[in-house]
């Protein structure tokens, strides 16, 4: 299985960070490609995209000011297959990417992703009080995996805070 390409550039409004690519994403070369993953639906229903994109259009998010990466690049069936060493190496690489590209908001797609990145245990949903890298906003959202038990309306509600944050961060500049 091969890793998938990041979609990232300087000065993004949001950089979405997932755990790692699924097997389906590795096969197709596109982020959030598993048909059970609700990422694309969540982006649309939360007001982040003007329509529901398909995973094959993931590179078009750059045109909207959004990027995509993962904390670990190795594809797996499930996140619990990721080793501590992979998380630590991925954490260092993610810090490097954020420092270079300077996105306004880093949206962690899953509380576990942020736990591995921040080394914090107790994490609320949404904007974090203090970011790991100054000059960025750390935002924690539920995983978009179909395995997540949270109700879809509650997930969308959390992601709906992002367009408001983008507007605020643009006014603060």
UniProtKB/TrEMBL annotation:
Report the domain of life of the source organism. Answer: Bacteria
Pfam families the record matches: UDG
Question: Keywords, A to Z?
Answer: DNA damage, DNA repair, Glycosidase, Hydrolase
Q: From the UniProt record, give one GO term of the biological process aspect.
A: base-excision repair, AP site formation
The protein's name is: G/U mismatch-specific DNA glycosylase
Xref: SUPFAM superfamilies: Uracil-DNA glycosylase-like
Domain Uracil-DNA glycosylase-like, which positions? Answer: 7-153
Q: Which GO terms describe its molecular function?
A: pyrimidine-specific mismatch base pair DNA N-glycosylase activity; uracil DNA N-glycosylase activity
């Amino acid at each position: 299985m091969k890793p998938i390409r990041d979609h990232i550039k300087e000065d993004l409004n949001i950089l979405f960070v997932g755990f790692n690519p699924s097997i389906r994403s590795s096969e197709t070369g596109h982020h959030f490609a598993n048909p059970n993953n609700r990422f694309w639906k969540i982006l649309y229903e939360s007001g982040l995209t003007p329509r529901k994109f398909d995973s094959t259009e993931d590179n078009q998010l750059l045109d909207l000011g959004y990027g995509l990466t993962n904390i670990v690049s190795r594809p797996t069936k499930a996140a619990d297959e990721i080793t501590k060493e992979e998380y630590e190496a991925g954490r260092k690489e993610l810090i490097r990417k954020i420092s270079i590209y300077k996105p306004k908001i880093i949206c962690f797609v899953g509380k576990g992703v942020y736990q591995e990145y921040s080394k914090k245990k107790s994490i609320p949903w949404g904007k974090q009080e203090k970011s790991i890298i100054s000059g960025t906003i750390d935002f924690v959202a539920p995983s978009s995996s179909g395995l997540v038990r949270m109700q879809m309306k509650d997930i969308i509600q959390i992601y709906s805070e992002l367009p408001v944050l983008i507007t605020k961060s643009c006014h603060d500049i």
